[in-house]
Fold this sequence. Notes:
This protein is an alpha/beta fold. It contains four helices and five strands; from the N terminus they run αβββααβαβ.
Amino acid sequence: MTLHDRLTSFVRVTLGCGCPDEVFSEIVVRSMAADNPAPVRLAIEVGGRLLVHVIEEGPALTDPGLMPTVVEDGLRRRDQGGFNRFRLVVAVAGSDGAGDVLESRFDAVSACDDRIHLHILPASSIPW
């Protein structure tokens, strides 16, 4: 299975994206380390419609001020890039209670925008 196939499956199945087939003809993966104020590891751009940022749980759990930075940066990039949706994926290693903490922090900064979604997933489900 190619990386493109794994990413398509990840976005469709794991994240639940219902985008039409033609959207998946172009998937771009970018490393975000150099140009991002937040610890976003990767950005996945799907067909000019969906922007996905992937971060690891460590910084997201230990720094309560991080979630606003990550969300604001993702929304800015979504809007500037003309994407329809932004999905934030937090890859967790299995910390008990991590989901509740992360969801609470996310909800506090994203309640007014229905085009943003949080996915808390086991690190093993990230396709690379």
